[in-house]
Amino acid sequence: MKPLVILAYKEYPDTAVEAEVLSVLDARIAQITDFTTDDGTAAAREADALMVTTRPVSAELLQLMPRCRIISRVGTGVDAIDIEAATRQGIWVSNVPDYAIDEVSTHALTLLLAHARRLPALLDSTRQGIWDYRIVPPIVRLKGQTLGVVGFGRIARALAVKARGLGLNVLAYDRYVPDGDVEAEGVRPVSFETLLRESDFVSLHTPLTDATRGLIDSQALALMKPTAFLINTARGALVDEDALLAALREGHIAGAALDVLQVEPPPADHPLMHEPRAWLTPHIGWYSEAASREMRVKGAEEVVRVLRGGEPRSRINQIEAAPMPVRTTDQFVETEI
After folding, report:
1. Element housing 170 (H / E)
2. Ramachandran bin of 26, using left for φ above 0, alpha for ψ from -120 to 50, beta for the remaining angles
3. Is the separation of the CB atoms in 93 and 78 below 8 Å?
4. Residue 327: inside a domain, yes or no?
5. How far apart are the first and last CA of the chain?
6. CATH number (domain holding residue 177)
7. pLDDT digits over 149-163, tens only?
8. Is the predicted pLDDT of residue 326 greater than 80, yes or no?
């Protein structure tokens, strides 16, 4: 029987990108987002692989999928997947950690520059017919200011290169990266508290875990300069939104730019949507056409690897004994982006 690959997302107009990669398996492809229907449940029981974007993958869903061999996260974050349940069931979990490094780092830098040059306020004022730069607070020269990055993975390193090219000093806090590796990038490793105290801009680039959930809370915000600007292009739950709102309203920090929130899309009455010092973008930091295609290709490639009897390139968990591979129609060759 041909393997069945379920695409549990419908963000894209067709499945041509995934189908091209999965063609070496002669796989059947089904787009299903509702597994509570009879058709959805029946497909889940037959599925050999599940590809997901942001939908939760619970232990209950996995119990419906006795044949499943891999959950391929078409994206980076895996906090919505029950990895322990998948591992117990012998299912690989993979992700695509390297598809939008340039896009996310550029988005973070764009938000930084927009604040540094007071662009939103100036654009609003000129639309109102006001031709006077003095309506904004005094602008400090960018060169010589300090950017602090929380987390020092691929995206943070790319941002550091771009920021240093503009004359910013860069600090980094990452408990898992040796100081020597940080220093080799021309960045100064510091403690979390030092980073918050010294940075003019704080940009978050750490995964969401139990340890980092609510990392930016009232205590962290209290350590920041009153002129500091917070940027989050990582995961919404890294920030205590109530604490951030209070800090903005009370003037403890100058502003914040968030590309991610705890709940997306936010309700229309979400207070941060109406706070002048908070800028929100609709989780677009990852996006370009090239990044979108690369993400889908690499997610499908992980399915091919596993269903041919191998291991994922970017595995999140470890499965002791992989099942026998399915039959394929052609030799698998990775698609270049």
Report:
1. strand 169-173
2. left
3. yes
4. no
5. 31
6. 3.40.50.720
7. 999 999 999 999 999
8. no
- Same domain, yes or no, for 30 and 137? no
Same domain, 78 and 140: no
Residue 322 pLDDT > 60, yes or no? Answer: no
pLDDT tens-place string over residues 182-240:
999 999 999 999 999 999 999 999 999 999 999 999 999 999 999 999 999 999 999 99
Give the rounded percent of residues in the chain with a pLDDT score beyond 70: 95
State residue 11's pLDDT score.
87
Q: Which amino acid does the sequence have at 1?
A: M
Closest C-alpha among 69, 72, 9, 4 to residue 43: 4
User: Does 87 share its domain with 196?
Assistant: no
Residue 87, exposed/middle/buried by CB under 10 A (0-12, 13-18, 19+)?
middle
Asked whether 90 and 67 are in contact (CB, 8 A), the reply is: no
Average pLDDT, the chain: 94
The whole-angstrom separation of Cα 245 and Cα 316 is 34
pTM for the full predicted model? 0.88
Peptide bond into 178 cis (omega under 30): no
HSE-up of residue 256 (Cα within 13 Å, Cβ side): 31
- Whether residue 110 is found in the same domain as residue 180: yes
How many structural domains are present in the chain? 2
Judge if 28 and 115 occupy the same domain: no
Phi and psi (nearest 5°) for 209?
-135, 175
Q: What percent of the chain has pLDDT over 90?
A: 92
The residues annotated with a catalytic role in the active site are 235, 264, 283
Q: Can you read off the two tokens belonging to residue 324?
A: 């026998």
Number of other CB atoms surrounding residue 136 within 10 Å = 14
Question: Looking at the domain assignment, is residue 11 inside a domain?
Answer: yes
121 and 83 both lie in a single domain: no
> Phi first, then psi: what are they for 262, rounded to 5°?
-65, -40
